[in-house]
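Limitations
The structure tokens in this dataset are predictions for the assembled complex, not deposited experimental models. Users should treat interface geometry with appropriate caution, especially where small molecules or nucleic acid strands are included. An illustrative entry is reproduced here so readers can see what is and is not provided.
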Amino acid sequence: MEHRLPTDDTSPEERARLRDRAAARLRSITRGVAVSAVALTGIVAALAAQSTHSAATPAQAPAPTATASAESDDSAGTPTAPPSTSTQQPVVASGGS
Amino acid sequence: MISAPLPRVRLQALGTTAIVCVTDAGALDGAERILRRELDAIDRACSRFRADSELVALNARPGTPVPVGELLFEAIRVALSGAARTGGLVSPTVGRALRLAGYDRSYELIDASADRAHALLSPVPSWRRVVLDPTGRTVRIPAGGELDLGATAKALAADRAAAAIARATGSGVLVSLGGDIAVAGESPAEGWPIRLADRHDDDLDAPGPTVEIRSGGLATSSVTARRWRIGGEQAHHIVDPRSGRPALAPWRTVSVAAASCVDANLASTAAVILGDRAEAWLERRRLPARLVAQAGEVATVGGWPEDPR
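Predicted assembly:
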């Protein structure tokens, strides 16, 4: 790419052309810096979010192991059958404790 | 049909009454031994009131990954899973709020008739901020947080004890810990008959219907038990994590049947906290439940049988 500076012999038209070219190049560099800054900001934000997530989330999604319940969060542990009315003498009571 | 009473043993543990009942009389001694072992293990791991418990040691070191034993790790994992499945309504992170609300010692030692001047309020940290690392088996609780496993550890103990007894003895078994019930093995021919009462230690002929279950668990949550007074108002042990205060419950009791005692207890506790929205929440999850309003009206959902007239 041409990088000429004006001299005493440079004509006014040529000076104007060089000035316009330098200005265009400066705008291009400025745009590049701006784009890079936006990209860098995005990367930093992504890294920060990842770091926050690691710190605030259980290392392993908790899941019960010792119970008969299904382990998915979609499961409410629905029983195989609802209770039925009984006429037997109860063996225990269920109530507040 | 009138059957012979099923063999059973009753003992005191975890600040409440434990009962084990078996279908095979020859299994009763072994069942009692296993139950005592499970209760002792869960108490040493999960009690908030024993100075030597693992949970007390963990709560003393917030913000730091703390190595814990297998049972406490499992109990916390079950509690966090429960928090996830109830949308955070039943969270183990209510420990500090419970303590500041006055539940700061084993309930038998609380003078329920005394009126404390006021409760200190504490925001409840999200359960998501509890970090479990299965590799090193460590738990990190958030700064300012304290865990309470009261909503799930007792039910987990009932599930574990019932499964262990059925496996070891081959007998059908029912384990009740303060009315939170797990059954395992082959049930009696007509199922396990259970009386629904205000309190688990009511007489078995106290008013209330009797239902039978054949598998899984049944639990009742209530605001009529474990109560004390603060600033002239009644407080109780079920804290709403959204407010950090005892839940404003329109229900005296909520009983739920589920695939396990843990599942039943999670749902009954969530229903108390949800209040007026509990019936729809339970229905959506196809959980059979019986809800008794403060004035005594009874509602049933999810296929739970209506009370006999």
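Some entries come with short summary sentences. For this one: Chain A is about 45% helix and 5% strand.
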